[in-house]
Design brief:
- The chain is mostly beta strands.
- It has one domain.
- The chain contains 1 helix and 14 strands, in the order E-E-E-E-E-E-E-E-E-E-E-H-E-E-E.
Length: about 150
């Protein structure tokens, strides 16, 4: 049986992260995601940690290139006291569209049966993954990394 993995890709491009404020102004953070490490569930656990940094201008920054999870594992996003994770286009792996941080933490659990949902069948068949677009919003500024759930080849 093929293993199914979930990949949270915290990557905008090979040259850096793109962030924007609510008015649509665009900022480019001075970080290169290609040099960032990948994050996996910590040994002996079902939990991967995703740090959210903030630069001197208040722009959210990534601290890992990607998070790789198995179904049933979770990503814990930790950073500023107040931030949000908002899935776009009413498409989410958890059926919840918006997460508000509690004490600087948001937890997203990848369902064990994520690929049993009929709305993902076509995309999974065509791409071998399902992509979820979401934003990390800090101080009214937005970071837009993709979130992919994919099968292992």
């Amino acid at each position: 049986m093929r293993k199914i993995i979930a990949v949270v890709l915290l990557v905008i491009g090979s040259t850096g992260c793109v962030a924007a404020d609510k008015k649509g102004s665009e900022y480019v953070a001075n970080t290169s995601t290609r040099n960032l490490p990948s994050s996996y569930a910590l040994p002996g656990t079902n939990t991967a940690i995703v740090g959210i940094g903030v630069d001197k201008k208040g722009i959210p920054l990534e601290t890992v290139k990607e998070v790789v999870l198995l179904p049933g594992q979770r990503a814990i996003f930790a950073g500023p006291d107040k931030f949000q994770i908002v899935f776009k286009g009413k498409k989410t792996p958890t059926r919840k569209l918006k997460y508000e941080s509690q004490n600087g933490v948001v937890t997203i659990l990848v369902p064990k049966d994520i690929f049993d949902r009929p709305e993902f069948e076509r995309e999974l068949r065509e791409n071998n993954y399902v992509r979820f677009d979401y934003s990390i919003i800090v101080n009214g500024r937005e970071l837009d990394p993709p979130f992919k759930v994919k099968r292992e080849n």
